[in-house]
Amino acid sequence: MATMMKPALPRGNRSRVYQKIVELLQTDPYLSAYFPAPSAWSVSDGQSFNPAQAGTNPHIYLVPRPSAASWYGSDSQSGILQVDVYFWMPGNSLGQYNALDALDCFEVIEQVFYPLNAIEKQQAIRKSLQEAGAKTGLVTFSQPATQQQTAEQGLVSYGALQIDVTRRISP
């Protein structure tokens, strides 16, 4: 039986901004050491996070959630793209990871977008997000990492970041 090719859709601004966020996170040296890409990342399958299926290695799970768009000008709309961030840290009963690790992990995520004492790098990151379709390229952290579930097999922490994305609707 022949497989059916899915029709190609044009890549929208939300998707381009999300892809840029994923790229920035996966190429960060601290995050990539802790969560090697692509094996320790789930970024596009849209499934709910399930710690029972997470395995025995640290894992990061990103879920894009666009919000409603409103008028930004006579020719464009603007809306928030939220990215839910889940961390899986196994081996809680063995003392491998704890809540401090989750806090540190989210702080590293914050530093991906706002590296300490690196104004030029921050500006380059904002520009790359703007080129992808973000309004200003500024990322806000609407939900710092909080411990969501803990059990002998590990802990799950959840945080969220948001970015304003614009879309032109006429030339």
Count of helical stretches: 4
| CATH domain class | Alpha Beta
How many beta-strand elements?
5
So what's the overall shape? Answer: globular
Uncertain regions: pLDDT < 50 for 5+ in a row?
none
Task: Calculate the mean pLDDT score and round it.
Answer: 85
Structural class category: alpha+beta
List the secondary-structure elements in sequence, H or E: HHEEEHHEE
Strand content: 35-45%
Total domains, how many?
A: 1
Assigned CATH superfamily = Phage tail protein-like
CATH architecture, by name, is 2-Layer Sandwich
CATH fold-type name: STM4215-like
In which range does the helix fraction lie? 25-40%
Q: End-to-end span in angstroms? A: 44 Å
Radius of gyration: 18 Å
| Largest sheet: number of strands, sense, barrel closure | 5 strands, mixed
Account of the protein in words:
Helix 1 runs antiparallel to helix 4 (119-132). The chain is 29% helix and 38% strand. It has helices at residues 13-26, 29-34, 99-113, 119-132, and strands at 41-42, 59-73, 76-90, 134-151, 154-168. It has a single domain, classed as 2-Layer Sandwich (STM4215-like), CATH 3.30.2000.10. A hairpin with a 2-residue loop joins strand 4 and strand 5 (154-168). It is built from four helices and five strands; from the N terminus they run H-H-E-E-E-H-H-E-E. The protein starts with 12 loop residues before the first helix and ends with a strand. The chain has a five-stranded mixed sheet with strand order 1-2-3-5-4. The chain has 171 residues and is α+β, with helices and mostly antiparallel strands.
